[in-house]
Write a structure and sequence with these properties.
The complex is a heterodimer of chains A (117) and B (130).
Chain A lengths: L2 H4 L3 E3 L5 E11 L4 E2 L2 E2 L2 E8 L18 H10 L4 E4 L3 E4 L4 E3 L6 E2 L11
Parallel strand pairs in A: 1-8
Antiparallel strand pairs in A: 1-2, 2-5, 3-4, 5-6, 6-9, 7-8
Chain B lengths: L12 E3 H5 L3 E3 L5 E4 L2 E6 L12 E8 L3 H6 L9 E4 L3 E4 L3 E3 L10 H9 L13
Parallel strand pairs in B: 2-8
Antiparallel strand pairs in B: 2-3, 4-5, 5-6, 7-8
Classes of the chains: A mainly beta (117), B alpha+beta (130).
Chain lengths: 117, 130
């Protein structure tokens, strides 16, 4: 699977109702060892209900300056959530369908900005 | 409505668009190779259409001629991508660093071709100017 096929795809709940779009895909470097590093394991999808785009991840990295931009992007991406990959029922060319009983988590990135690449 | 925080995975957490896509790839000598245009993801059993029933991992960084598809939409066919296996990646930071030389990778074949067939035919082009 090419990741570009997943990004910006609509996300639907088990009843077929649209929840939003995949604005990003979260990986964790805790997969099987592949060469010098662990392979990035697909941890979850970041779903934004109102737009198919995200700008610099303002809605998930805790950055609050410049205040005007931070508030604008936080407002624009209100309702963004993380859903685990294990809650994905199927991925087709048209949409990403979630399993019954899927759970939403806060989209915030762990750690401080200085700890991230 | 506030959502519960996610349980922190044990490894470094990377959001594809924020931390990987469009990042510069440097080889083991620090020479720029290309940028990360996309990623290839497989299920751990090798499936190329994984779903949530099985873990999925990044197997390759992809680079290719994406200018036209970014302007006009769509994406290059799978056969047109140049793949750099994740096994060659040595570090992920503001750039993606490889543990191999760029000259050993398929993605740099156009540079080698231009060097061998054009640059070397220009007078003085077959040796280091330094």
């Amino acid at each position: 699977m090419i990741l570009g096929d997943l990004l910006d795809s609509p996300v639907v709940d088990p009843g077929g109702a649209r929840l939003g779009f995949v604005v990003d895909v979260r990986f964790a470097l805790d997969g099987p060892l592949d060469g010098l590093l662990a392979a990035p394991r697909l941890h979850g999808l970041l779903v934004s209900p109102r737009t198919g785009t995200s700008f610099l991840g303002y809605e998930r990295n805790g950055v609050n300056a410049p205040a005007l931009l931070a508030r604008w992007f936080a407002w624009r991406h209100r309702g963004t959530f993380l859903v685990h990959w294990t809650d994905v029922e199927s991925v087709t060319g048209d949409a990403v369908a979630l399993r019954a009983g899927f759970r939403r988590f806060a989209a915030d990135l762990p750690g401080t900005p200085a700890q991230r690449p | 409505m506030s959502l519960p925080p996610d349980e922190r995975p044990p490894g470094l957490v990377l959001d594809a668009r924020l931390h990987l896509l469009d990042r510069q790839i440097l080889d083991v000598d620090g020479v720029p190779v290309c940028t990360v245009d996309d990623l290839e993801v497989h299920g751990v059993d090798g499936s190329d259409r994984p779903d949530g029933a099985q873990p999925a991992v990044v197997t390759s960084l992809l680079s290719g001629a994406v200018l036209a598809t970014r302007v006009f939409g769509g994406r290059p066919p799978s056969s047109r991508w140049h793949r750099i296996r994740w096994a060659h990646v040595a570090d992920v930071g503001t750039t993606v660093k490889l543990g191999v030389r760029g000259s050993e990778l398929d993605v740099t074949w156009t540079e080698r071709w231009v060097r061998d067939h054009i640059i070397t035919r220009i007078p003085g082009g077959s040796h280091d100017p330094g």
